[in-house]
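Journal club side-thread
Mid-discussion, someone asked how the predicted structure for our own chain would compare to the paper's figures. Pasting it here so we can look after the session.
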Amino acid sequence: MPESANLMGGIANKKSKPEAIEPDPLILIAARAASEKKGIEIVVLDLRKVASFTDYFLICTGANSRQVQAIAESIEEQLRKAGRRPLHSEGYSTGEWILLDYGDFVVHVFSHTARRFYDLERLWRDAEKVTLPDDLSGAPDKPAAGGRK
């Protein structure tokens, strides 16, 4: 076997593991605040390679408008304790989609219906998904054996 074929085979068979993206610690504070208020489907998108207006989106869902508002209020409160206030916020009156703009990241708290309708993950599908610690994923509760929660 020619030496060049061996080298090429070695290179072609190497699999590089993608580097984990470490988000701003404030995003983790926001994700934890959402999780503590029972926010589900918590996702962080890294937009740095695909957008210039912000670095990250934090997206999560609440079960109803009151919970959406409570999640957003908790995120604001926890980030305020960390010394950050949103540059802009909107959507509190309806509680369907609350947006909190912190400049380098934007928080989107949706109702189920609004999240499916606007589908930001599809719209920004070229953005990389940031891996969050398991306790912050906000995965919906799975039924226990027997079909009950």
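Post-session note: Confidence is low (pLDDT under 50) at residues 1-18, 142-149.
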